[in-house]
Amino acid sequence: MRPILKRLGTLAIAAGLSHCAEQLPQTSADGIFTAAQADRGAALFGQHCARCHSIQEFTGPAFNAVWAGTPASAMYLRIANTMPMDQPGSLGTGQTTALLAHILDSNGMPSGNQPLPGDLPWLTGIQMATAD
User: Which CATH class is domain 25-124?
Assistant: First the structure.
């Protein structure tokens, strides 16, 4: 009976260590939003943003010139605090993260399994990758 307990203990430790070895996202290219979240963001962009902006302002070379290399929290805070222009700061956390997910998706960033959180310290640790 002891060898079985020893094996089970070894397996438990190995499982715990493999969990610790999981890669934490470091850039916006690490699947930090879900496809559903980006889809919600696309609808919100049409509802709140498209009357003043086109998505081209936030994609490709325009995105790279302003946002590539900055923390994701910078864009999150810009959206949260200054948009929409006629009602700055009126968007909730879920709307802001969905809009950010839509912008990342529009720049060819891959989606993942977890929704983008509105957690500023976490977002500060995520660097905006260069758009395709």
Answer: mainly alpha
Average pLDDT over the chain, rounded to an integer: 89
Handedness of CA 94, 98, 99, 101 (dihedral sign): positive
Residue 50 vs residues 28, 34, 40, 41, 65: alpha-carbon distances, Å? 23, 22, 14, 12, 21
Averaged pLDDT for residues 81-88: 95
* Mean pLDDT within 41-62: 97
Q: Please report, for the chain, the start and end positions of each structural domain, with discontinuous segments joined by +.
A: 25-124
Given a contact cutoff of 8 angstroms between Cβ atoms, the answer to whether 97 and 118 are in contact is yes
DSSP per-residue letters across 14-27: HHHHHHHTSPPP-B
CA 109/CA 38 separation, integer angstroms = 11
Q: Bridge-partner residues for 127, per DSSP?
A: 27, 71
